[in-house]
Structures are given as C-alpha cells and as structure tokens.
Amino acid sequence: MSRIIAALLAVASCASIAHAQSSEPAPTSPPLTLERALALAGETAPSLEAATAGVRAAVAGRTVAGYRPNPSIVAETENVAGSGQYRGLRSAETTAGLSLPIELGGKRSARIAVADAIGNRARIGTVLAEADLRLAVTQLYIQAASAERRLVTAREQAGIAREALRAAGVRVQAGRASPLEQQRADVLRINAETAVERAQRLSEVARDNLARRIGQPVTASLDLAWYDRVEGFGPARPIEPAGTLALAAARADATTAEAQVRLARSQRVPDVTLSASARRLEATNDVAAVFGVSIPFPVFNNGRAAIAQARAQSDQAQALRRAAELDAAQDIANAQAEVANAATSARNASGPVLAAAAEAARIARIGYREGKFGQLDLLDAERTLSETRTAAIDALATYHDAKARLERLVAAAPSSEENVQ
C-alpha cells in the first residue's frame, strides 16, 4: 500500500512540475494586425507602383501638352549640277532661314485640358489601386485568420477524440461496453487527427499567400480577437453612390472624352507656318530676304470624322457613367444587406448556438463517463459541436468578407484639391 501511495505522489509531483513548466509564459511577438498587414502591403505593392508611375506620366504629359511647336531650320541650294550656265556652283542660290508653326483654333489649350483630365483620372486610379489592395489584403487576412481558427478547432476536436477513446477503453476494460465502442472511438480519433493535418496545410498556404502580399513571412499569430468580433449592425442606412470611387472614375472618363471632343474640333482649324530666310546668289554674291507663309489645304481630311469619333466616344463615356451610377447604387444596397445578414448569422452562430452545442457536448461526455449515456449520444453531441464550430468560423469569414467588400464599394473619392495636388 505504501508503494502505491509513493508512486501516486511521484506521479502527482511530476505532473505538477510539468504543468508549472507549461504554464510559464513563453516569449511571443505581438500579433500581426490587419492594419499592420495593410501598411506592409502598401510598401511593396506593384499595383501602387504602377499607379504612381501613371501619375508621373500624366504630369509629364501635362508639361508636354503646354509646349508650343518647335521652329524648323530651313536650308536649300538651287540651280546646281545642271548644264550650261548652271553647271557646278556658278549659278547656285543658297537659302537658309527659320520656319515657325503658328497654332490656331485653341489647340494648345485643348491639349492642356485633355492632359489635365488624364492626370485627374490617373490620381483617381491611384486611390482605386489603394482601395483594391486594401480589399485584397483584407480578404487574404480573413482567409488566414479563419484557417488558423479552423486549425485551433481541429486540434481541440482531436483532443476530445483522444479523450473519448480513453473513456471508451476504460468502459471496455470495466466490462461496461463492447470492444466495438473502443474501435469506433479509435476511428473518430484517426479522422480527427487527419483533419488537423489538413487544417495545418491550409493554414500554412493561407499564411504564405498573405506573406506574398505583405512582402515578409508571417511568423506571428494573427489577431483572432478581431476575427471573432462582430460589430453591431442596425438597420441599413441608404448610402448615396455620388461620392464613391467608382463614380469618380466614371466621371473622370467622361470628362476626358469631352476634352477629346474639344481637341478634335480645334484640330479642324489649319495651322499657319511662317518662314523667314536669307538667300545668297553665287553669281553676283548678293543676299536677299525670303519670306513665306504655308497654310494646309484640307481637301481629303477636314477633321469631321475625328470629331464624330470623339463625340461617339464621349456619348459612350456618358452612358457608362450613368450605368455606373445604377450599378453602384444596386451593389451598395446588396452589400449592406449581405453585411447585415452575415452579422446576424455570425452573432448567433458564435454566440448562443455555439454555447448550447458546447454545453450539450460537455453533458454528454460526463454522462458517457458515468455510464448514463450511450456512445451514440456522445458522438451525436460531439458532431453537432464540431459542425457548429465550423459554421461559426464560416459565418465570421462571410461577415468580414462582406464588410470588406462594402467598404470597397463606398470608398470615398478624393476631393478636387487632392486631385490637383
């Protein structure tokens, strides 16, 4: 008897030491929050680099549009390499001078208007790229967080399956159950451990995808407290799409198309080229001034087709703008409904439903160990708990995804002052 008591004391001592060692806080890095992931992604995103390059190109294009036409140097020699008195250079006439194109019809101001419209669209494109990047990173973060939550749940279910196998073994050894219960519990343990392996792989893939976006490995834990949080969402307040990015881009395209119409009209007016030269006559060694005016004669291309093309493109842009208004209003209303429904589902699935399923499974485990419930009752309660946990994770993922898409739809367009900057 004393040996048995000593052995129990030794086991208890070892267990307490192991528990003390495992309870010591391990040094861990702070969790990777969504805002931190967004900041890291913004530092290395190729889409933002491309949008910024587009703005620089538009600024350079605005400078080019303001330039006037360059003058030309005119040089020619006449009456050379002929016959008779025109043999050689004896009767050569050399003319050298400058010619300067004079733009008429407001071409320069029309080009500047088009360049300004393109620059405004490029700046809106930068904000669009930032909003798209935010949505993409948020969705990857949601996938990684849900995969991590599924991994935690799978490990908990595997632990429960191992405990159920141990309890079944005790019942079989005590003669209170058939060996079939132990075999069935072992099968469930194997399936639970397999689910852990699958969840581990999916979690690694989700983290790798997020790491590619933020430009560094994801070694810290994710902010699961943010993932589990469901903000209150009351009745949907109508949101007007007037100030959203989507409509700002459509309006900028329409403005650019209208500026192209003005440019096409200005190009119908022919330009005048003035020239002033000095001519030297080889025979007499005299110098004379030569002045000229060149005006194109629009016989074949009078510019009407270009105006018709620009006007059709402007009509198309205006129609697309009106269609964007309708689509934006519809998409925002649908997204608001999705967020509200997802919030209700997530709040219920992760709240009272999950608590009830966990309590039912706890009672079934106690009753099974005490012989009050059969194994089928325990398995049914555990399966319900597992399905409820999975449904809660899916509902939270759907909620956060719907919220991210709604935020992308209602993202505010930059003000006119920001566009000028």
UniProtKB/TrEMBL annotation:
GO terms for molecular function: efflux transmembrane transporter activity. It holds the Pfam family OEP. Residues 1-20 form the signal peptide. It comes from the Bacteria. Gene3D superfamilies: Outer membrane efflux proteins (OEP). Keywords: Signal. SUPFAM superfamilies: Outer membrane efflux proteins (OEP). Belongs to the outer membrane factor (OMF) (TC 1.B.17) family. This is TolC family protein. It comes from Alterirhizorhabdus solaris.
